[in-house]
What does this fold into?
Amino acid sequence: MQLKTYCLVFMIIVLEAFFISLILRPGIIESRILFTDEKKPTTPVDSHLKLKPLNKLKFLSPYGGDWTFGRNACSCRILNSDMFTYDKFNAGKDNLAIKKRRGLQYEQYKKRNESPAKKVIIAQPHSPLSYPTHGVEVKPLYSILIPGLAVHGMEGEKNTVKLTATQGVFNTIVETPDGVVHGSGEQELTIRSPSLAIINNILKHVTYTSKKYQIASTDLVSFQFEEYTAEFVILIRVPPMIRLFDPGPDNSIDSLVTIVTKTFIRYHKLRILISSIRKFYPKIMIIIADDSKVTEKIEGPYIQQYTMPFAKGWFAGRNLAISQVTTKYLLWVDEDFEFTQETKLEKLVEVLEKTNLDLVGAPVSQDVFAFKLWYEEGDDEGDCVFSQNGSFHPLDGFPGCVVTSIVVNFFLAKTEKVWSVGFDPRFARIAHTEFFIDGIGSLLVGYCTNVKVGHQKKGEKDKALNEVENKYAAFRRLDRNEFRSRLDMTYFKNRLKCYTRNRV
Amino acid sequence: MQLKTYCLVFMIIVLEAFFISLILRPGIIESRILFTDEKKPTTPVDSHLKLKPLNKLKFLSPYGGDWTFGRNACSCRILNSDMFTYDKFNAGKDNLAIKKRRGLQYEQYKKRNESPAKKVIIAQPHSPLSYPTHGVEVKPLYSILIPGLAVHGMEGEKNTVKLTATQGVFNTIVETPDGVVHGSGEQELTIRSPSLAIINNILKHVTYTSKKYQIASTDLVSFQFEEYTAEFVILIRVPPMIRLFDPGPDNSIDSLVTIVTKTFIRYHKLRILISSIRKFYPKIMIIIADDSKVTEKIEGPYIQQYTMPFAKGWFAGRNLAISQVTTKYLLWVDEDFEFTQETKLEKLVEVLEKTNLDLVGAPVSQDVFAFKLWYEEGDDEGDCVFSQNGSFHPLDGFPGCVVTSIVVNFFLAKTEKVWSVGFDPRFARIAHTEFFIDGIGSLLVGYCTNVKVGHQKKGEKDKALNEVENKYAAFRRLDRNEFRSRLDMTYFKNRLKCYTRNRV
It folds into this structure.
């Protein structure tokens, strides 16, 4: 009899223990098996994989070069040693003082222009936290509700959630029971409650207030529950003011486009240009920057002439001319161009109206001219710019047009975009690519071959005019010093260590 | 005897069942109880919390207004009805055609200027996926290794992982066994293997290549394993070209600062200004934009005078002057200012060298002048700008200096930043705030009171000079039409529905 009772009691105890182990609390139990790195499955799996050889990874480089896993600083290699010339800046080697000054300016620049926190954040698996990973933005000094915060998990006796920030403070917009929320109005908010439901309800009503007026910045917020932490970024940003241009009731070319040019003593060529423009566009505004020694007044309606100090310079004149434009687009022309039947500005306007391009160039006479620019980060010696013939790819929706980086001096462009890049007035005699290099990261450039402008022939029969042309050519001749100073300027200003380009 | 055996057998069965339920597979078992919204804990918890009343949430508005949870469009309210005047644009009401054109320009603007995808992404809890949530950036047409992708979880018989994108394609840089990877070089990459270890090793070696040349864009990548999906953003961006200025070996004021001004017929005042500058800064460059009818040549070293079409205008002249600056900073002065002992430009340079400010103003004579601008998104009628006396907060490290939005016409500024905003040449007679409105989102503005410039007195004893002053004043008098056209311009150009400001 005793054994029977013993067995029965034992059965009951064991059965109860069994069920208790299954149902520890009200709710559903789900068993999970977690693999950690230290505990490998008992069946051995060979997961070792070989890296592809470098020569099979060239397709990952946009110009078929070596792909360096994004890690290495750019090097001043020649892309194709048969075809490319190589210009390297020597300012650094010749003058350590210049290099040191450049370094200081660069440190200052980096501090002000750091892209919103470059930190790479990885979302961890098997976390009970939900939180926003993208799209949280607030204006400086304003407040927002933080979306998506919650703890999905095991409720303990004391649940504590903590939020921390550095550029702003937290608050709650709901009335909370005493002792639950600490740190309202501060950079660290703590929420404590035995009830996860209450904590989650509060988390739905937490605000972030940015406390410093900045144009563009980020805050890194830390969201913590027990041993789990998640990080996310809040963008603090003043939206850039909108700038629109009124095309006018008739959407005419005259309301949309201003022609800009610079002249230096070659008035005869300038007058031919203007004459040719008027054949097709009698009312379009023409703005002329003039740094000739003796000014000849250019008369006529819709013409604005500006005089500059003598020989002030090429890019100074270009910057002056664009600064006076009041229309949505500007058309750059050199003073020795000539409009023809093929110079249909409407086609260029259509490209800029219907695509994301900021600037679209077209051929001058027979010259087809388009180059790509590749810009890569370097090291203490500087960064690299590589230029390559041709285009990146066709322009969607516009056969005959491509996306590129550098075009010739006949282009239509969004006025404001050109202002934001500018023609650096320090380039006095010759410069061209420098504008497009300055435009890297700002201007989206295209090139279309269905529009053309003519180029007035060099050499004049008239003796006096020929003298003018010779005078002009003398000013344009770039001596060795000017060439060096142009490179030195780019070395410092754009913090480059080399500019590699096609042999022209 | 039979019962004893029965008990024993039963005990053994129950014990085995108990242990099997604990240890289903090799590894560690962790029991978790998941709460879902539908299954509430059996102990009832009142998690309902009351929203604080709106009048207790005013602290969330940067100007103590109603906080609208970031949802409502701005309204043209008067911030404080006793103190503020109210300008509302009527162009929309008077002219539906203008409003329609503005709408079309705005649609176009939005398409080109959309901030990297505004989508709010929430990381889901209890996911076996790890993935990057921030910091993944690639240059257009370049390739990067995607960091942090892995599946941490239960291995099934057929594990399938899928990656999808829209602006680029995926590849792997490791040799993979046949049939495991599909879609290399395409927008959808699939990885299938019975071994999660192999899948995870491949995921460590997946590249993303951007396929379209764009200045700034985003791709939304979807990462999927069984029923789990995670989304993350890849930023596609050409880094903006660096622009540095060489301060020269001696870091002198002359190498750092150019003085810019505009003159219109008041040459007597201009000469007094220049004289006063030369007392303290004998070699600083002075650039003069001149739209007088009859030009008087201003002679002297380090002076550059530019002539414009007669009465071309105030902001046109300002834009011209700044376009010619070759130094890191420019100092704006009006032609009737006067330098004094207190006009220490070195102090203003120090502020811009050591803080994030782009522009710092200072008082003219006794006038202290600083206004904040608040910019809020509206609706189809447009957006809102509110201006308020005073400053946002002090400038860190500079007692006597504050952060604000609008200052008077005596300021030192970073040349390039001013270029990128520009003085809109469409404002011919009177404009001031318009520059700072255009600068919203671009310029970080400050104001310091430890530097001053003098203001030449109005009214001349000399009869001829007095006539000049009267002529000048006549041009400056803003008639009703001009005032209306200035508002209409801002209505269209900045897409505003109102500009509310202090009563001066």
About this structure: The first strand of chain A starts at residue 28 and ends at 34.
